[in-house]
Design goal:
Blueprint lengths: L3 H4 L4 H10 L8 H6 L4 H26 L2 H8 L5 E7 L8 E7 L18 H14 L2 E7 L1 H7 L1 H14 L7 E5 L10 E4 L2 H4 L1 H24 L5 H4 L5 H10 L10 H7 L25
Length: 289
Amino acid sequence: MASLEDLLKRSIPELREIFLDRCRPAPKGLLAALETDVRNGAQQLAKQIRKRYRSNRSEGQRLHNLLRFEIELWADGYELVAGVDEAGMAPLAGPVVAAAVILPQNYKLRGLNDSKKILDQEKRAELALQIKQDAVCWAVGFADVDEIDRVNIYHAGLLAMQRAFSGLSCLPNFVLVDARKIPQCPVPQRGIIRGDALSATIAAASIIAKTTRDAHMLEMDALYTGYGFASHKGYPTPEHCRALKELGALPIHRRSFGRVREVLGLDPIQTELFEEQPAAAVDAASASV
C-alpha cells in the first residue's frame, strides 16, 4: 500500500476505486485527511468509507450471533457440528430436498442467512457455491413425489434429512436441525425452532437445500414446458394453479395434495401440510431465543 502522502495525491475516483470498490482498509490518517479536505468529493468519500466500516461491524456482530449454538457446542467439546434443513415442503410438484453441512469452526460468511430471507437467486447461488467450497463436508438428500404421496410430506421431509445426514463424508459429533429431529440419528441432536434464522450451520444447509431444489425444478421446466416451473419452482402460485387446471397434472405433481387431487377429480385426503409434532421432538426452549 502506498504511503498516506502518496495516496492524498491521487484523484477522488482513484481513491474511491481502492477503498470502496476494492474494499481495501484505509490507512491511519486517511479518513481524517479526507474529512478536512476542501473538496466535497473527498468529504463524501470519507462518509461512505465510514458507512462501510459500520456496516462491516454490524454484519460481523450478526454473524457472531448466528454462531451462538455452535460456539456453545464447540466449547463443550463437539468439534464437528452439522446443520440440517430441508426445502420444498409446500410445493404442489417436485421432491423435497434436504441438506446437511459441517462448517469450519468460527466460520463467518458475509450474507449467510436463512435462505428464505435471501431473495436474490444469484446471491443464493453464490453463497451456496462458497459454502460448498469452505465446508468440512456437505451432502444433500431427496425424497421424491412417490415417497411424499406414500408416507406424507412431513415424513418425506424427515426421510430427505436422514439421507442428507447419511451422505456426509465425515460423522459429526452433534447435529442442529431446523424445528425437528432426525429419526434414528446416531449422534446427539437438537431441534431449533426457526433454526435457519438462528444457526449458521442450519442457515448454510437451508441455502444448499434451496439452491439444489431450485436447480432440479429448472430441469423440470425444460422437461415440462408451459407450467412455469422455472419461475415458481412448483409452489402453488396463481400461475402454477392456472397451468395445473388448464394442462392437467404431471407425474411430478403431488397427488396427496388437495389442489392436485381436485384437478384429478379425487377426494381430498391431506388437509394439513404438517402433522402435529410431539413436544419432545423440538427444543421448546429455543422458541424464546
